[in-house]
Amino acid sequence: MYYACDEHIELALDVVVDENEVFPVMEKLTSEQALSTTCSFCKKQPIYSVTK
Protein backbone atom coordinates (compact mmCIF):
# COMPACT_ATOMS: atom_id res chain seq x y z
CA MET A 1 0.00 0.00 0.00
CA TYR A 2 1.18 3.48 -0.84
CA TYR A 3 -0.03 6.77 0.58
CA ALA A 4 0.03 9.77 -1.75
CA CYS A 5 -0.43 13.51 -1.61
CA ASP A 6 -1.90 15.43 -4.56
CA GLU A 7 1.56 15.91 -6.02
CA HIS A 8 2.46 12.19 -6.02
CA ILE A 9 -0.82 10.40 -6.80
CA GLU A 10 0.16 9.68 -10.40
CA LEU A 11 3.50 8.29 -9.27
CA ALA A 12 1.80 5.98 -6.76
CA LEU A 13 -0.60 4.70 -9.42
CA ASP A 14 2.29 4.08 -11.84
CA VAL A 15 4.33 2.23 -9.21
CA VAL A 16 1.45 -0.14 -8.38
CA VAL A 17 0.83 -0.87 -12.07
CA ASP A 18 4.55 -1.46 -12.71
CA GLU A 19 4.98 -3.73 -9.67
CA ASN A 20 1.78 -5.76 -9.91
CA GLU A 21 0.57 -5.34 -13.50
CA VAL A 22 -2.98 -4.79 -12.24
CA PHE A 23 -5.22 -1.76 -12.09
CA PRO A 24 -4.69 -0.06 -8.72
CA VAL A 25 -7.41 0.74 -6.21
CA MET A 26 -7.34 4.37 -5.10
CA GLU A 27 -9.27 5.44 -2.00
CA LYS A 28 -9.56 8.86 -0.42
CA LEU A 29 -8.35 8.85 3.19
CA THR A 30 -10.42 10.10 6.07
CA SER A 31 -8.95 12.95 8.08
CA GLU A 32 -8.17 10.52 10.92
CA GLN A 33 -6.26 8.15 8.60
CA ALA A 34 -4.31 10.99 7.01
CA LEU A 35 -3.10 12.31 10.36
CA SER A 36 -1.42 9.04 11.27
CA THR A 37 0.89 8.78 8.24
CA THR A 38 2.80 10.70 5.56
CA CYS A 39 3.01 10.45 1.79
CA SER A 40 5.11 7.46 0.68
CA PHE A 41 7.14 9.74 -1.59
CA CYS A 42 7.57 12.89 0.52
CA LYS A 43 6.74 14.22 4.00
CA LYS A 44 3.40 15.83 3.13
CA GLN A 45 0.05 14.71 4.48
CA PRO A 46 -1.47 12.04 2.20
CA ILE A 47 -4.89 12.33 0.61
CA TYR A 48 -5.14 8.88 -1.03
CA SER A 49 -4.19 5.29 -0.39
CA VAL A 50 -3.27 3.18 -3.42
CA THR A 51 -3.29 -0.62 -3.33
CA LYS A 52 -3.32 -3.47 -5.82
Describe the overall structure.
It comes from Alkalicoccobacillus murimartini. This protein has 2 helices and 3 strands; from the N terminus they run βαβαβ. It is α+β, with helices and mostly antiparallel strands and 52 residues long. Strands 1-3-2 form a 3-stranded antiparallel sheet, covered by helices on one side. The mean pLDDT is 95.
Produce a short descriptive summary:
The protein has about 50 residues and is of the alpha+beta class. Helix content is about 35%, strand content about 20%.
Task: Compile the SSE list and pairings.
Elements: E1 2-4, H1 9-20, E2 25-28, H2 31-35, E3 48-51
Antiparallel strand pairs: 1-3, 2-3
Keywords:
52 residues; three-stranded antiparallel sheet; CxxH/CxxC protein (TIGR04129 family); 33% helix; YyzF; alpha+beta
Question: Taking strands numbered 1, 2, ... along the chain, how are they ordered across the largest sheet?
Answer: 1-3-2
N-to-C CA distance: 8 Å
Percent of residues in helices comes to 25-40%
Q: Judging from the principal axes of the Cα atoms, what is the shape?
A: globular
**Helical segment count:** 2
Strand content: 15-25%
Topology pattern, helix = H, strand = E? EHEHE
Alpha-carbon Rg, integer = 10 Å
Organism: Alkalicoccobacillus murimartini
InterPro entries: YyzF
Pfam families: YyzF
Protein name: CxxH/CxxC protein (TIGR04129 family)
